[in-house]
Amino acid sequence: MNIGDKIVYPMHGAGEITGIEENEVGGVVNSYYIFRLPMGDMKLMLPVDKIEDIGLRELITRDQLEKVVEILKAETDPMLGSWNKRFNTNLERLKTGNIFDAAAIARNLSRQNSKKKVSSGERRLLDLSRQILISELVYVCNKTPEEITAWVDELIDVPPQSAE
Question: Which of the chain's termini has less CB crowding within 10 Å, N or C?
Fold first, then answer.
């Protein structure tokens, strides 16, 4: 992994490796990749020696982008079970780092939320799935987070998200 690489970190989204720093924790000096996400200007420190275990992956290709668009436009999956069962199922899907799962979750919860507000737990999953999806599309499409957010909302066919 090199400075300037753009990668996806499960449960956070896509970002860029902007540097390497050494920090001392408990008397032990370790090296960390500095990972910046385009949304919220978040900075994470990823331990260099644990990078294989974290589940990082490369950005999707332009061909895979077409599949994301198809998922966002597709019919909403039926809402089965209680909200907490759906929450746990969706959380496990997001943990994989799969953008197709993030797109389906964002689509389903966005549409549900536009009809009837989802629970606070599902609202957090909605926000997280959108962050994961939008952060990667920012790099793949070379657009701003605002442009991608508007495009995703248009594809899902829901009113724009208001900041709360």
Answer: C
pLDDT tens readout for residues 29-41 = 999 999 998 777 7
How many domains does the structure of the chain reveal?
2
Mark whether 102 and 149 lie in a shared domain: yes
The residue out of 18, 36, 58 marking a domain boundary is: 58
**Residue 7: how many CB atoms within 10 A of its CB?**
20
Same domain, 42 and 78: no
Instruction: Yes or no: say if 148 and 119 are a contact pair by the CB < 8 Å rule.
Output: no
Identify any residues that bridge with 6 across adjacent strands, giving them in sequence order.
16
Report d(CA 87, CA 33) in Å as an integer.
31
Kindly report the pTM of this predicted structure: 0.83
| Domain assignment of residue 118, given as a range | 62-156
